């Protein structure tokens, strides 16, 4: 899974023509599976970098919004007095990080860079502490623990130091350990300054706030409205039309331990029922990848089923990198696509969530083959993208290791 997100990002830069730019070196870097991750894991096993604060008794709510590049971003503050920051919400992300001052090579961001010296509650991880000692790539300067290694979910190499400070994210306030980045080989992330990781790791936002459950509900990307991330007791479904799927069991050391993998039993499109090949049924729920990816044989079957169900002739020249597009006027009767997971939990994706406007008067299938990624690592892995989760309330129960979901008007939830 090391190059998963950076490869997806490079593909999506072509799709949405955003300003993202990643160097070749960054594109080949792994996503936080190197020395830094292993060192922090050893240091924080049984404890955290900072004393995380559980969410308020009534839970917490974090507003978020779509960017032009179709990523979900939340605004928050760090430090005392608070300094504004913004970050991608990364369901698989391992930790919270942001760019800090003293940057030698900062990527472009919309807000001013966080200045640690201006915060009275800022604490750098000391050189003699367990965290610093456990990071193989660490080095010390002025009793600050610096590291050099992959940290970003965009795959870029970063240089920074481990630290802790007060965070206010939506209605939640907590003292969190985070990565303070002072150099990277990323040119831009399109505005945000970092990432909020929700992965199953000791240092993610979820773990540091001692959450047993959280949920999110993404509004349609073209609605101009606000999505929401619910933390703790505020994370709950209305019930009635909800379904629940068990997470795929993983073993120690498995690269999927930080992710939220489900077992895909089948996909229904029109009259067609598609079963994934044996050994290629794992699907990751994702928030950084806007579009979904299916193993090639499953994708080819889905492509044929969509063409048959739509009935209209596809365009002769699809909008790159999509390979199935239709004139907008010809797809009014397109069916919903139904993903069925282990335990018969079914997630229905309506036409507007899988046929998106990629060009004027042209709708394209916002699902791609993993073969497009040109990575043997992903040949047998599927990904459920964020566009296909619009107006679906997704609930993650960490104790039960389940994902529950139900259709919802996400803009009306509070």
UniProtKB/TrEMBL annotation:
Spell out the Gene3D superfamilies in the cross-references. Acid Proteases (2.40.70.10)
Record-level GO cellular component terms: extracellular region
Q: Where is the Peptidase A1 domain?
A: 72-406
**Residues in the signal sequence:** 1-20
Name a GO molecular-function annotation.
aspartic-type endopeptidase activity
Spell out the Pfam families in the cross-references: TAXi_C, TAXi_N
Family, as annotated: Belongs to the peptidase A1 family.
Know the name of this protein? Answer: Peptidase A1 domain-containing protein
| Taxon lineage | Eukaryota, Viridiplantae, Streptophyta, Embryophyta, Tracheophyta
């Amino acid at each position: 899974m090391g190059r998963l997100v950076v490869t997806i990002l490079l593909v999506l830069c072509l799709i949405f023509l955003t300003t993202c730019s990643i160097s070749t070196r960054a594109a080949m870097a792994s996503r936080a599976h190197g020395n830094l991750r292993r060192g922090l894991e050893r240091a924080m096993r049984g404890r955290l970098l900072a004393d995380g604060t559980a969410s308020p008794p009534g839970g917490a709510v974090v507003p978020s919004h779509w960017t032009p590049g179709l990523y979900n971003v939340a605004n928050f503050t760090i430090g005392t007095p608070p300094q504004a920051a913004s970050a991608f919400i990364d369901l698989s992300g391992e930790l919270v990080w942001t760019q800090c001052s003293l940057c030698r090579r900062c990527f472009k961001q919309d807000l001013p860079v966080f200045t640690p010296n201006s915060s009275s509650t800022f604490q750098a991880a000391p050189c003699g502490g367990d965290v610093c000692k456990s990071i193989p790539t660490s080095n010390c300067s002025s009793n600050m623990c610096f590291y050099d290694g992959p940290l970003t979910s965009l795959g870029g190499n970063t240089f920074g130091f481990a630290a802790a400070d007060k965070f206010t994210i939506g209605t939640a306030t907590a003292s969190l350990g985070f990565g303070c980045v002072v150099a990277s080989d990323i040119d831009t992330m399109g505005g945000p300054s970092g990432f909020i990781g929700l992965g199953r790791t000791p240092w993610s936002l979820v773990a540091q706030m001692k959450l047993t459950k959280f949920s999110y509900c993404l509004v349609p990307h073209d609605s101009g409205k606000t999505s929401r991330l619910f933390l703790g007791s505020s994370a709950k479904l209305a019930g009635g039309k909800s379904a629940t799927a068990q997470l795929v069991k993983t073993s120690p050391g498995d690269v999927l331990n930080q992710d939220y993998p489900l077992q895909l039993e089948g996909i229904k499109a029109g009259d067609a029922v598609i079963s994934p090949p044996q050994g290629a049924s794992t699907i990751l729920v994702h928030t950084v990848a806007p579009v979904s990816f299916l193993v090639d044989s499953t994708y080819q079957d889905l492509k044929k089923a969509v063409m048959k169900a739509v009935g209209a002739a596809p365009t002769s020249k699809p909008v790159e990198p999509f390979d199935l597009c239709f004139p907008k006027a010809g797809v009014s009767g397109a069916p919903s696509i139904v993903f069925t997971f282990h335990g018969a939990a079914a997630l229905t994706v309506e036409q507007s969530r899988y046929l998106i406007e990629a060009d004027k008067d042209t709708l394209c299938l916002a699902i791609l083959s993993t073969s497009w990624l040109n990575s043997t690592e992903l040949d047998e892995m599927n990904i459920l993208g964020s566009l296909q989760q619009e107006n679906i309330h997704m609930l993650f129960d960490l104790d039960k290791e389940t994902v529950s979901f139900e259709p919802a008007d996400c803009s009306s939830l509070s």
